[in-house]
User: Which sequence fits this backbone?
């Protein structure tokens, strides 16, 4: 299995930006489709974005479309989440997740049970 470690979270003002990173080790990173999820206070875990093994195909939740961008660098075994125009509703613990094999349809990739491995999460707080 691959092991995942997120970083890059923190406190940011509304309208600000952050870039989250998720570094992978273990099995070959490029054999995994990757996803980002988040869980806000008192909320269920929510799909944010997913990316295929080559990085060509991506999905983004409607709530973040146009503001967040998922990308990956297979040479660095890292997946990123660029977050712009942040607002307080984006406050959450952000988790990256790995699913061995090709990217499936968005209906599959938005389900947290579709993933094999999870990171420990990184806190993002949007507040003035």
Assistant:
């Amino acid at each position: 299995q691959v092991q995942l470690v997120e970083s890059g979270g923190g406190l940011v003002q509304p309208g600000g930006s952050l870039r989250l990173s998720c570094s992978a080790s273990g099995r070959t990173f490029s054999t995994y489709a990757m996803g980002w999820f988040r869980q806000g206070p008192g909320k269920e875990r929510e799909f944010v974005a997913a990316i295929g093994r080559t990085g060509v195909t991506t999905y983004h939740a409607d709530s973040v479309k146009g503001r967040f961008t998922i990308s990956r660098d297979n040479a660095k075994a890292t997946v990123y989440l660029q977050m712009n125009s942040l607002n307080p509703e984006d406050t959450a613990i952000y988790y990256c997740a790995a699913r061995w094999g090709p990217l499936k349809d968005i209906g599959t990739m938005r389900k947290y049970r579709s993933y094999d491995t999870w990171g420990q999460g990184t806190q993002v707080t949007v507040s003035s």
